Amino acid sequence: MSYINIIGAIASVFLIFTPLLRAMHSTKDNLQVLFEDNHLIVINKRVGDIVQGDITGDKPLSEVVKAYIAEKYNKPGKVFLGVVHRLDRPTSGIVVFAKTSKALERMNKLLREKSIEKTYWALVEGHPIEDNGTLKHHLKKNPRNNRSTAFMKESKDTKLAVLHYKKLLQLDRYSVLEINLETGRHHQIRCQLSVIGHPIKGDLKYGSKRSNRDGGILLHAKKIKFIHPVKKEEISIEAPLPHSGLWQLCQTELQNKPRS
């Protein structure tokens, strides 16, 4: 085969898979909207989506949601959208945005008062000895490498980190943990699970043995519960798991697991 034919074949493969690569990120046309009203919009973030702009210059999810709102409601000019909280780029799951400044202010107040319940699922390497547990560490963030380090005792510049976990499923080499946070520290779940010897699958930064094909980690913001900032009604939202092989295997195993 000539070099021209080889290059042509490579180009053909690239054209075939380019739409699939693009589909890995959220756009205004494939946005996974879990909840929306006049005050809030809740998105199921894909692995690789960045919530707010950073030095990479990649288009953030916040701008994608703005474009979605502008098109859906035929809004001229700038669209207001407040970021209530963030998720790390390699993770997936629930992200809440405010569509009005009043909703943003009130959601921020709920966050400060720890009145928003968040539940995460993590697929970790190995099997924790205890089926349920509480992890307490003092975390210190290093901005230079964007990494947190855990200490057992408080020291300068550390912040207390507390989480509770429950083992939902045990596979041959992995476990699925349900996690509830008492605190919201930088890379808290990733760091604390790594410290006890069970890093999240794909999380090379915190000790995982190998990466995932999509570059993500198997940490998913699964559920959120709060009192609506305007309507004062309880809102409970759950995000479907990503369509990756392992997550879908876990979903099947959990559905077939006998109830205790």
Overview of the molecule:
The chain is globular. It has helices at 3-23, 61-72, 101-112, 188-195, 245-256; strands spanning 33-36, 40-45, 82-83, 92-98, 117-125, 132-142, 147-151, 159-170, 174-181, 219-227, 234-238. It has one domain (3-256): Pseudouridine synthase, CATH 3.30.2350. The protein is built from 5 helices and 11 strands.
CATH class reads: Alpha Beta
What distance lies between the first and last C-alpha atoms, to the nearest angstrom? 61 Å
Q: Any guess at the CATH architecture?
A: 2-Layer Sandwich
Task: Count the E strands.
Answer: 11
Number of domains: 1
Q: Helix coverage percent of residues? A: 25-40%
State the secondary-structure class: alpha+beta
> What Rg do the Cα atoms give?
20 Å
Multimeric state of these chains? single chain
Specify the overall morphology. Answer: globular
Please give the largest β-sheet: 11 strands, mixed
Name the poorly predicted regions: 1-23
Question: Care to give the gist of this entry?
Answer:
This protein is of the alpha+beta class and 260 residues long.
Which key terms come to mind for this protein?
260 residues; alpha+beta; Pseudouridine synthase; 11-stranded mixed β-sheet; 5 helices; 11 strands; disordered N terminus
Topology:
Layout: H1 3-23, E1 33-36, E2 40-45, H2 61-72, E3 82-83, E4 92-98, H3 101-112, E5 117-125, E6 132-142, E7 147-151, E8 159-170, E9 174-181, H4 188-195, E10 219-227, E11 234-238, H5 245-256
Parallel strand pairs: 4-10
Antiparallel strand pairs: 1-2, 2-4, 3-4, 5-9, 5-10, 6-7, 6-8, 8-9, 10-11
